[in-house]
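Technical annex, item 7. During the second reporting period the consortium partners agreed on a shared format for inverse folding records so that results from different sites could be compared directly. Each record opens with the tokenized structure and is followed by the designed sequence. A conforming record, contributed by the partner at site C, is shown below for reference.
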């Protein structure tokens, strides 16, 4: 092969090689990418709050209906006693896990602990209310609810404050400010709930299973 032919062949090979190489993609502007991430995180957070608000409202109404049904069945003691068991069986067949007898009793107690629907704080999730219904004193229960919502306590933070008798310590302390400041520091370290958004489910019982787990 002549030198001229070799040169042409070599140039063709180089052109083919250049075409085969993937084009280098320009880097994304940091500000642009950050705005995209913020939009997605906000959407997840909104979906999380929407699911929790809907489920809390549903549980409150379910608890109300259970209590009213039991009250109407007082004359039939056997019916009232078996109501939650039978309801659990039927709901489990219809929706799967998340409606065992223990959970239904918890939902019933939720209504009894918070009989006024408008008094609930929409910022709180069902996991918060599961802890709040364990607080026996109504005044303490209301206080923990308000503080959890106002201070953006996570479920873990709320549990820690309830277990440490935070409300009782405030009442007993002569100078309440240091205790309050200490409590704020403890809960801040535990984080704010709602940051880890969950995927919004279009199916009611799937959302229930996530929240009741």
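Designed sequence (site C submission):
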């Amino acid at each position: 092969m002549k030198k001229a032919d070799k040169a042409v062949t070599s140039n063709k090979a180089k052109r083919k090689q250049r075409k085969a190489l993937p084009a280098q993609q320009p880097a994304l502007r940091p500000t642009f990418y950050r705005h995209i991430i913020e939009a997605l995180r906000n959407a997840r957070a909104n979906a999380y709050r929407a699911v929790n608000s809907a489920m809390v409202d549903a549980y409150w109404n379910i608890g109300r209906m259970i209590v009213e049904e039991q009250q109407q069945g007082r004359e039939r003691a056997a019916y009232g006693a078996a109501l939650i068991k039978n309801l659990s069986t039927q709901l489990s067949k219809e929706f799967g896990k998340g409606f065992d007898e223990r959970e239904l009793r918890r939902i019933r107690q939720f209504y009894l602990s918070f009989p006024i629907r408008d008094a609930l704080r929409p910022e709180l999730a069902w996991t918060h209310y599961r802890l709040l219904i364990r607080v026996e004193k109504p005044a303490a229960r209301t206080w923990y609810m308000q503080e959890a919502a106002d201070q953006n306590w996570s479920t873990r933070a709320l549990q820690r404050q309830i277990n440490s008798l935070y409300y009782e310590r405030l009442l007993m302390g002569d100078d309440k400010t240091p205790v309050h400041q200490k409590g704020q520091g403890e809960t801040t370290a535990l984080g704010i709930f709602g940051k880890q958004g969950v995927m919004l489910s279009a199916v009611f019982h799937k959302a229930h299973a996530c929240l009741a787990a």
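The chain has one domain: 39-212. Residues 30-72 form the longest helix (43 residues). All partners now use this format for quarterly exchanges.
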